Fold this sequence. Notes:
By secondary structure, the chain is mostly helical. It has a domain at 40-78. Helix content is 55%, strand content 0%. The chain is built from 4 helices and no strands. The radius of gyration is 20 Å and the shape is extended.
Amino acid sequence: MSDKKDSFKINRTERGGKNEAAEIDNFVSGQEPETTKTFRLPIRLSRALKIYAAKTGQTEKDILVRLISDYLESNKTS
């Protein structure tokens, strides 16, 4: 009798694993590599961001990337 845990496997690429073809495609197209950040926002800010994104035709990601970039650029410590 086999154990079900032994026969259950998930096929996935390990995080941080290198997919050479994808890296080459990103390099050729000029895309910067990305990472995932998970954080919690107050509901009021999440709703306001979602509404603003819809009204302006932007994605929430694009807005956040721009805000973080602008903030870091204006607060350089060097």
